[in-house]
Write a structure and sequence with these properties.
With 201 residues, the chain is mostly helical. 76% of the residues lie in helices and 0% in strands. The protein is globular and about 45 Å long.
Amino acid sequence: MRGFRTTLAVLGVAGAIAIPLTLAARSPLLAWREPIYIVAGFAGIVAMALLLIQPLLAAGLVPGLRLYDGRRIHRVTGGALVLAVVIHVIGLWITSPPDVVDALLFSSPTPFSAWGVIAMWAMFGASGLALVRRHLRLRVWRLGHTMLVGVVVIGSVVHAMLIEGTMETISKSVLCLLVLLATAKAVADMRAWAGRGRGSR
């Protein structure tokens, strides 16, 4: 029974990621887009998928994977997340520099742009803390990282939900909901605010 539940959980996460990607790839809106714009858009979708995986790895919630191993992979996928966001932004910059400049200056008329920029800077901050974590007190590191990750997740979810693009609405909503639930579960389990929790670093 335990093996069946493990398999079911893995398939559920895989489906939550694969279905939005597949439906986005079949979107008729792609027919009118430049290749670089398509790459940028899918980099954003991949980033959302990684936001689902990250808390599961950090809190040891991946079935069959030890906490230590999960956190090692968490660091690698964290780098992949940063790369995906960078590709997303650079791709949009290449296709429309004025829109990216407006977004970065928080002067864009589209509300989703501001949320995306906030999430991006918070992600860079969380990644920066991860690079210097050995030089920080454990509680400072965990509180700072957790707070910044919270901003990343909320900003990214709002950003994604406000965009009417290639992602199909229902599958996008399910993915965003799972990202929120996985992050909340990981934060609760790790109890970063109390300076203790599962594992250390």
